[in-house]
Design goal:
single chain; alpha/beta; Rossmann fold; about 15% strand; globular
């Protein structure tokens, strides 16, 4: 079986690359998917549908266009990894985790211990909490090869 792993969350560090490279080096039977990680492109996703005078409506349209990709990929993944960084609040990642929980889709949270408290409900529904991309690779090794 080839496992599909959806990588959700923070876009300002190389955690995705580390997980993908570590998984490739370990020859894990996984393929990866993700939301659009180009912030400007994501913000402009709805612009093709017409310009908006109010930022709310631009964001509203773009979030719906982005949801076409995000929902489809989340629904079709075998497991999700949801990354929360300490520099920005990733409300979209929290939403993805909640969506996974509602679908009974297994997910792993990835964050350091400094934000355990604000993520207590998100972590409570997760099947694992990792602090490093390397731990995620080891979890993927276990579940895909054991």
């Amino acid at each position: 079986m080839i496992w599909t792993v959806y990588l959700s969350g923070e876009i300002h560090t190389d955690w995705r690359d580390k997980i993908m490279q570590g998984s490739a080096a370990a020859d894990l039977p996984v393929e990866f998917s993700s939301a659009v990680t180009d912030h400007d492109a994501s913000d402009a996703a709805g612009d093709v549908l017409g310009s908006e005078d109010q930022p709310y409506w631009r964001d509203h349209k773009s979030s719906k266009v982005n949801a076409i990709r995000t929902r489809s990929l989340l629904e079709n993944c075998d497991i999700a990894v949801v990354r929360f960084g300490d520099k920005y609040k990733q409300w979209n990642a929290a939403f993805d985790a909640g969506y996974c929980a509602a679908m009974n889709k297994p997910y792993i949270t990835l964050h350091d211990e400094s934000i355990i408290h604000p993520l207590k409900e998100v972590d409570a529904a997760a099947l694992a909490w990792a602090q490093t991309p390397e731990q995620v690779v080891e979890l993927l090794r276990y579940v895909t090869k054991s």
